[in-house]
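**User:** I keep going back and forth on a fold encoding question. It is easy to fool oneself when nobody else works the same problem. Could you pick a protein and write out its sequence and tokenised fold? Could you put it straight underneath, so I can go through it closely?

**Assistant:**
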Amino acid sequence: MKKKKKQKQKKIKLEKCIKKLVKQYFSHTKNAKNLNNGGYLHSELISRVERELIKQVLKQTQQNQSQTARVLGVSRTTLRKKMADFDLL
């Protein structure tokens, strides 16, 4: 039971962080109607979050790619591909 409670608490903290950052983004652009990004907001956001997540996990694992892949739940091959895509190699 304790493990599920900790996971739920972590999820809530992450959701609060995401909500705060998305609100900040929209406060700088005034509202979604004023965004002129060609309709790629979702893919741009996911890409930026994924890049930063990989960078931070690499930092936490002292650049250990195998450990980073395990933490992220992806194969090392997938991690290396994403690192190449994001110019992190």
